[in-house]
Task: inverse folding
Protein backbone atom coordinates (compact mmCIF):
# COMPACT_ATOMS: atom_id res chain seq x y z
CA UNK A 1 0.00 0.00 0.00
CA UNK A 2 2.81 2.43 0.81
CA UNK A 3 4.34 1.79 -2.60
CA UNK A 4 1.06 2.62 -4.34
CA UNK A 5 0.76 5.65 -2.12
CA UNK A 6 4.10 6.95 -3.37
CA UNK A 7 2.74 6.95 -6.92
CA UNK A 8 0.20 9.61 -5.88
CA UNK A 9 2.72 12.37 -6.53
CA UNK A 10 -0.02 14.79 -7.58
CA UNK A 11 -1.25 14.87 -3.97
CA UNK A 12 0.45 16.91 -1.27
CA UNK A 13 1.36 15.32 2.07
CA UNK A 14 -1.81 16.58 3.75
CA UNK A 15 -4.07 14.92 1.19
CA UNK A 16 -1.94 11.77 1.13
CA UNK A 17 -2.41 11.47 4.91
CA UNK A 18 -6.18 11.74 4.42
CA UNK A 19 -6.03 9.12 1.66
CA UNK A 20 -4.05 6.78 3.90
CA UNK A 21 -6.68 7.00 6.67
CA UNK A 22 -9.46 6.49 4.13
CA UNK A 23 -7.77 3.40 2.65
CA UNK A 24 -7.00 1.74 5.99
CA UNK A 25 -9.79 2.87 8.32
CA UNK A 26 -12.48 3.94 5.82
CA UNK A 27 -12.70 7.35 7.43
CA UNK A 28 -11.01 10.73 7.55
CA UNK A 29 -8.48 11.36 10.32
CA UNK A 30 -9.64 13.28 13.37
CA UNK A 31 -8.09 16.69 13.86
CA UNK A 32 -5.63 15.33 16.44
CA UNK A 33 -4.72 12.33 14.26
CA UNK A 34 -4.13 14.63 11.31
CA UNK A 35 -1.93 16.96 13.37
CA UNK A 36 0.16 14.04 14.67
CA UNK A 37 0.60 12.55 11.20
CA UNK A 38 1.60 15.91 9.74
CA UNK A 39 4.11 16.45 12.57
CA UNK A 40 5.58 13.01 11.81
CA UNK A 41 6.24 14.01 8.19
CA UNK A 42 7.61 17.44 9.13
CA UNK A 43 10.00 16.04 11.78
CA UNK A 44 13.51 16.67 10.46
CA UNK A 45 15.07 14.43 13.11
CA UNK A 46 13.35 11.40 11.55
CA UNK A 47 16.01 9.83 9.32
CA UNK A 48 13.68 7.36 7.61
CA UNK A 49 13.12 7.82 3.90
CA UNK A 50 9.76 9.00 2.62
CA UNK A 51 8.59 5.54 1.59
CA UNK A 52 9.56 4.16 5.01
CA UNK A 53 7.57 6.93 6.72
CA UNK A 54 4.47 6.05 4.71
CA UNK A 55 4.95 2.36 5.53
CA UNK A 56 5.19 3.24 9.22
CA UNK A 57 1.99 5.28 9.06
CA UNK A 58 0.14 2.40 7.38
CA UNK A 59 1.46 -0.08 9.96
CA UNK A 60 0.43 2.21 12.80
CA UNK A 61 -3.10 2.52 11.45
CA UNK A 62 -3.41 -1.23 10.95
CA UNK A 63 -2.47 -1.71 14.59
CA UNK A 64 -5.03 0.83 15.81
CA UNK A 65 -8.16 -0.14 17.71
CA UNK A 66 -10.31 1.19 14.86
CA UNK A 67 -8.88 -1.45 12.57
CA UNK A 68 -9.26 -4.34 15.02
CA UNK A 69 -12.80 -3.74 16.28
CA UNK A 70 -15.96 -3.16 14.31
CA UNK A 71 -18.35 -0.59 15.75
Result:
Amino acid sequence: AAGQHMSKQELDVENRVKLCFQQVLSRKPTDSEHKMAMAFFRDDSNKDGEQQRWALLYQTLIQSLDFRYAK
The chain has a mean pLDDT of 83. The CA atoms of residues 2 and 55 lie 5 Å apart.
